Amino acid sequence: MELIELFKYFIGRKSETPDDGGLLDFIEEYLKGFNAVRVDVADVKNLFIYKKFSEGEHLCFAGHVDVVPAGNCWDTDPYDAVERGGYIYGRGAQDMKSGVAAFTQAIKETKEFKGTLSLLLTSDEEGEAINGTVKVLEFLKKNEMLPDACVIAEPTCEERFGDAIKVGRRGSINGYLTLKGKQGHAAYPEKAKNPIHQIAEVLGNMAGIDLDSGDEFFAPSKFVITDIRSGMQVTNVTPNELQMMFNVRNNTKTTQHDIVTFVAEHLNGLDYELHLTQGSYPFNTNRDTKIVKHIDRAIEEITGIAPKYSTAGGTSDARFISSMGVDVIEFGVKNDSIHSVNERTSRKEVEDLYRVFKMLITHWDVEYKIR
User: Is 125 annotated in the active site?
Assistant: First the structure.
């Protein structure tokens, strides 16, 4: 297959999480001559496929073949790649079958490499992500096969292809707060403790507040309230307690301890319980690492654009890879229609992404200086 034919084939395989649509079996067959390891867990399919060309570093390309449900009101069949006006439409066009097609084709065509090339693919990125990339990494660590550097082909560009790479991600801390009061009659507020009134007095100093000042790599960690509920949906009874949920996309300056302190300062003297969970932790790949310098040079060579370094956005499987001590970056097509109806990407972006990956592979042993 040639690149665009491969990309369209990927779109045509319905692979809603955790279904891989048969794509991992296909890729294993497509990359004949590579060593394949399956790390399937329950209904999640995982593939690690690699080839040691010679002694040297291990460069990995990672991603997911699963997609979110297509939804309704598409202009075309979301699982029949339609090309129109230079764009290719279909679920997963941006997130992230374009990236998987680009690096799969680039690796298939590689004849020489100073080191080991591999692919790490899962069908559990858009879901709970507990039986996907994490399980493969556990296997690789146990067998001393972790890569030295990794590229995840998530969609990263903003206005133009090549304008941004992700060199890190913020963490995500979820908060569950219960503020306890004393139920009473609305006509006798002095005999009750109304938690709605209590939270109202401090909410303006908590909601949307920056917990730190950020830095050159990360935006400030912001206290974002996502839900408040209380009462019995009647007008004559004040509630006994109030539940509030919030999220903090934290950078490296703010931890769970800082959030506990922030809440305590504002709810001083009130009766409350606070529970925090953290699904991901912030990471930041150093700018002078080999993978950053090489992807940077390849992008500029192919597109003429010097990409900016970004840590914005939500979470990705890069958080798991970074936690293993692997230098990881993300680079892919534009991100402007992921998860939406009529998701699309341009033919040229897919072709240029493939060219970037080809150059990254062929120039991996070249010494570059950071710009």
Answer: yes
